[in-house]
Design brief:
By secondary structure, the protein is α+β, with helices and mostly antiparallel strands. The strands form 3 sheets. Strands 2, 3, 4, 5, 6, 7, 9, 10, 11, 12, 13, 14 and 15 form a 13-stranded mixed sheet that branches. Strands 1-8 form a two-stranded parallel sheet. The chain is globular. The protein binds 2-acetamido-2-deoxy-beta-D-glucopyranose. The site of 2-acetamido-2-deoxy-beta-D-glucopyranose has 4 residues, from helix 4.
Length: about 325
């Protein structure tokens, strides 16, 4: 009996040592990961300030069910600023983050009642083209998701204050689709990422145009959710564009060479996505309406999708949102 319990204790101690001792020099608040005992399922247990990661019921990401979108005619046109940004491209060890230095690049409209100042852009990606995005559509993931996060600049003075406050944050999310040529503007970030291979490395970036990188689309899906990283604060209005950004295989493969940690041969920064969380009766609204005069089309309402696994694309066909091959 004695030796049995000793053995069990040892196993637990070993597991803790192997899996969750932070890398030297890393803050305790930074050692969460996307794998195993420090991964998404356990974020809420590690730090009392991250309790929402475990107990929150308005969490992000979600799976977007194409049959469960609500057309809302009160949604306005999304207005995304044209300003070029200066900032830093950082390998945070969790993701590739572009932090924005100035307060010029803003967005509003859509479901939003305030102006949001973009302070960071985050990139989540997978190790294959079938995983990577945080939000999924009809259970299907995209190879990458770019999240442009802003804080409410009308009510709050900075992002750390806003993320704890009502209507504090908003995020515009764009899924990626693999194409031959990729996106030239996104390519600039990919090129820069080559020199920030390891955690903590950063590179200055000047005059980057986010709006040029984005697909042109007036259509989106929106819901109220949370940050997808600790502490999972439920103060984020999500706006998911209905068109993807095009990235090439080469661009994705270069990003997949980034590492989570500090050395050669270390874990690659891939599959850094939080899996979808329950919707829990939240509304998922869209401004996509069938504008066809065709009676039959009207009857089909606005939420007809066809989802195919290989290449997902949000597109408009006769005013009807579809995901096509
Ligand atoms: C953010 O704003 C609050 C309130 O004005 C202030 O107390 C806090 O120090 C600011 N934080 C940062 C990181 O600037």
């Amino acid at each position: 009996m004695e030796s049995y319990s000793v053995c069990v204790d040892l196993l637990i101690v070993l597991a803790l040592h192997i899996c969750i001792v932070p890398v030297p020099g890393q803050l305790w608040s930074e050692w969460w990961t996307y794998q195993g005992i420090s991964g998404p399922k356990f974020w809420g247990y590690h730090n009392p300030e991250w309790i929402l990661c475990r107990k929150g019921k308005l969490q992000s990401p979600i799976d977007i069910d194409p049959h469960n979108l609500i057309y809302d005619q009160n949604l306005r046109q999304l207005e995304i600023g044209q300003d070029k940004i200066d900032g830093k491209l950082i390998n945070t060890g969790h993701d590739l983050t572009l932090t924005v230095d100035d307060l010029d690049f803003t967005f509003t409209g859509g479901p939003l009642s305030y102006d949001y100042i973009v302070y960071e852009i985050k990139i989540h990606l997978g190790n294959s083209d079938r995983v990577g995005s945080e939000h999924t559509v009809g259970g299907n993931a995209f190879p990458m998701e770019i999240q442009i996060v802003g804080y409410n600049g009308e009510l709050y003075t900075n992002a750390s204050q806003a993320l704890l406050s009502p209507h504090g944050l908003a995020a515009i999310s764009v899924m990626a689709m693999v194409t031959e040529s990729g996106n030239e503007h996104f390519g600039k970030l990919v090129d820069m990422s080559k020199s920030i291979e390891h955690r903590g490395m950063q590179k200055d970036i000047q005059g980057f145009s986010v709006s040029q990188m984005l697909p042109t689309s007036d259509y989106f899906i929106t819901y109220e959710g949370s940050l997808t990283q600790p502490g999972c604060h439920e103060t984020v209005t999500w706006i998911i564009l209905n068109k993807p950004i095009h990235v090439s295989k080469d661009q994705l493969n270069l990003l997949r060479e980034l590492t989570f940690t500090g050395g050669k041969g270390d874990g690659l920064m891939e599959n850094n996505f939080r899996p979808p969380l329950p919707l829990n009766r939240r509304l998922v609204r869209t401004n996509i309406q069938s504008n066809s005069q065709d009676e039959e089309c009207h009857a089909r309402k606005v939420t007809f999708y066809q989802v195919s696994y290989r290449s997902l694309e949000f597109d408009l066909h006769g005013g009807v949102l579809e995901v096509t091959q």
